[in-house]
Amino acid sequence: MTHRLLVTYGQPTDPAAFDAHYRDVHAGLASAIPGLVRFSTGHPATMDGSPCPAYLVAELDFESEEAMGAGMSSEEGRAAGADVGTFATGGATMVHFDVHEVTG
């Protein structure tokens, strides 16, 4: 089973600075978290074209909730977590859950 950490970043005060820091610093910190098996990001858009409250969504997958906990409490995980406050001027919401594949 996969356990996912979903990070939703709010609209930053300076999108270009956010993107540069995320690309040049934060993505490397997050990629170094032990136990991470998949890491993806995307800029979301609403289906109706209205303003989107989220600027960036990141998905970090681990083999289990225990693996996520160990990774996030590691030195690398703490460094990535501490970095969020240095660039996420629109805030960040982190939730985690077991991923269940739905087949038709």
From TrEMBL:
Domain EthD: 11-89
InterPro entries assigned to the protein according to its UniProt record, in alphabetical order: Dimeric_a/b-barrel, EthD_dom
Gene Ontology molecular function, alphabetical: oxidoreductase activity
Any Pfam family matching the protein: EthD
Protein name: EthD domain-containing protein
Source organism of this protein record: Klenkia brasiliensis
Native organism taxonomy: Bacteria, Bacillati, Actinomycetota, Actinomycetes, Geodermatophilales
